[in-house]
């Protein structure tokens, strides 16, 4: 007789700078023990328990989704128990963070598993930190957004430190050009998970930013930083589609909903957490990034360059939704030759095989927003409209291609995509910094 399918989160283990996150999942062949290992750049030995312990527990819950999805549908167990706030956090991270995974695998039940966990009394004071921010830790992805954050904070006199998880060349190069310290974190996913995926276990997108947010907060605690400042824009909160009564958003853990959720369960004496770019659209950020030419030859936003299988020199693939999106939103703000140089001289808009991808970005012909970290369709329509006014693109055949030739932004869209958005969690000083972008 087989046991009922279940997935279990076991208590995390912290030894110095090493955090082990153990999980157990059941299959027809019995239980499988899995352990993820996070190695911080400095030990947590001197960190107050009321700060480090709740952060490690939240990290254990967020990281569990990478493993839970291989066993779903199943019961989700936390034998050590959950506080009411932790249970709510887990429930919302499952629902929002696994939306794309559940949609692409046809597993709506994965979003609302039975959570079996004894109730625990709240042991820690929770809520956003009100402490003054002298040193900010900025997670670096190697793309344009964190670069704009770094330079904006530095221009305002903020002491900026950087952090990256399993960094690749673009992240190392960003730190080199910025001339700021880069704290590196090693995240080792249990290789048995990859074996399960290879054997046909359900696989797909997980909320990586939720995991990296907690890793960054623990790094801030270990390295003496007062805040973790992310670089997620307003556009990240825009979903892809509605399914089973739920908005599916590839960027859910980059959106305002997750940011606010996490802030509500953080230990009160811990680092602050917010996104500097939250009130801004991707297009407004791209306009500012165009001025940071020292980074144009080294930044990379293409996700294929960050895959585990990617080589050390991996850069823009030149043929994916992310490449097309960044190409399109930068094009109005750069001389054409400078833009093409970023992609090794390749003109993505002149490639007929990619025109359908550009049509998808602008939301023409009823297309869905791609499951990628790309901006809203109205931003892309505005970028295309601005490009038609760019002297370097006059008469370009891509602008007259079927599906794009009749696309034009409205006057309202032209104004709105550069407007300030009021939904954010910025402290007063940082709101002033963001408004200057």
Please characterize this protein's 3D structure.
- This protein has 16 helices and 13 strands.
- The radius of gyration is 22 Å and the shape is globular.
- The chain has helices at residues 49-63, 65-68, 84-97, 99-105, 144-155, 169-178, 191-198, 208-223, 256-265, 282-289, 321-330, 336-342, 355-361, 377-388, 411-416, 428-435; strands at residues 6-9, 13-15, 18-27, 30-39, 75-77, 115-116, 135-139, 159-165, 182-188, 227-230, 241-243, 246-248, 272-275.
- The strands form 2 sheets. Strands 1, 2, 3, 4, 5, 6, 7, 8, 9, 10 and 13 form an 11-stranded mixed beta sheet that branches. It has a two-stranded antiparallel ribbon with strand order 11-12.
List strands and helices in order, with pairings.
Layout: E1 6-9, E2 13-15, E3 18-27, E4 30-39, H1 49-63, H2 65-68, E5 75-77, H3 84-97, H4 99-105, E6 115-116, E7 135-139, H5 144-155, E8 159-165, H6 169-178, E9 182-188, H7 191-198, H8 208-223, E10 227-230, E11 241-243, E12 246-248, H9 256-265, E13 272-275, H10 282-289, H11 321-330, H12 336-342, H13 355-361, H14 377-388, H15 411-416, H16 428-435
Parallel strand pairs: 1-5, 5-6, 7-8, 7-10, 8-9, 10-13
Antiparallel strand pairs: 1-3, 2-3, 3-4, 4-9, 11-12
Helix pairs in contact: 1-8, 3-9, 5-10, 11-14
